[in-house]
Amino acid sequence: MNFTKNTNNLIIFDLDGVLIDSRNNMENSWSHVKNLLNLKQNFSDYYEFIGLPFEEILKKIGINDYNLISKIKIEYEKNSKKNLNKIKFYPGVKSTLKYLIKKNYKLSIITSKNMERTKLILKDYLNYFNSINTPDLNIKSKPYPDQIFYAIKKAESSYKNTIFIGDSAFDKEAAKAAGVKFFYASYGYGNISNRHSLNKFTEIKNIV
């Protein structure tokens, strides 16, 4: 893919399933809350809706009680932070991000994780990103396009000079609604069809 050659070209990344493999961490955290709070839903039920905000996932799988949702969220996030060692970056992430910055691309993150956990995960990578966009900003999350619009505004870019790299149908839907080109990270968690795809993170070098 060839962008207009300027310094405002923007690449937006989903976090889970694109930059990081966090499935072990998520499964461990779900097992913790399931046992602690006697939930009937399995991790596979939760995992089906990865990419949506946490509360939305819980509602999708039949958990609607506000107090229970609050307890699950607190315990899940506590366990997730306790087991950050179970999260791994995909091969070549750091070198590829450095390559893109050297090529004058602006980089942003859009994730359904909260800001605290996102920054803990990205602690050695924070300076690589022009903006990190989480539900804490009170902007509608995926599949709505609002986070993409916000990232474009922060980068002083435009939808024509932006691509979004994600691994779920929710990512694809958000990109379509925002009018930006979408690349599917086929190595991630999703299973969707898309015109443009990446088999590994380092292939981003071939599309810019």
Task: Give the secondary structure arrangement, pairings included.
Blueprint lengths: L9 E5 L5 E2 L1 H15 L5 H5 L6 H7 L5 H17 L5 E2 L3 H10 L3 E5 L4 H7 L9 E3 L12 H10 L6 E5 L2 H10 L2 E5 L11 E2 L10
Parallel strand pairs: 1-4, 1-6, 4-5, 6-7, 7-8
Antiparallel strand pairs: 2-3
Report what the structure shows:
There is one protein chain. It is globular and about 50 Å long. It has helices at about 25-35, 45, 55-60, 65-80, 95-100, 115-120, 145-155, 170-180; strands spanning about 10-15, 20, 90, 105-110, 130-135, 160-165, 180-185, 195-200. The protein is built from eight helices and eight strands, in the order ββααααβαβαβαβαββ. The chain is of the alpha/beta class and about 210 residues long. α6 links the parallel β4 (about 105-110) and β5. The chain is about 40% helix and about 15% strand. The longest helix is centred in the middle third of the chain and has 17 residues, at about 65-80. The strands form two sheets. Strands 5-4-1-6-7-8 form a six-stranded parallel sheet, sandwiched between helices. It has a two-stranded antiparallel sheet with strand order 2-3. α1 (about 25-35) packs across α4 (about 65-80). About 35% of the residues are buried. Residues about 1-5 have low confidence and may be disordered.
Instruction: Indicate the low-confidence ranges by residue numbers.
Output: 1-6
* Secondary structural class: alpha/beta
How many helices? The count is 8
- Taking the alpha carbons of the first and last residues, their distance comes to 5 Å
Describe the sheet with the most strands. Answer: 6 strands, parallel
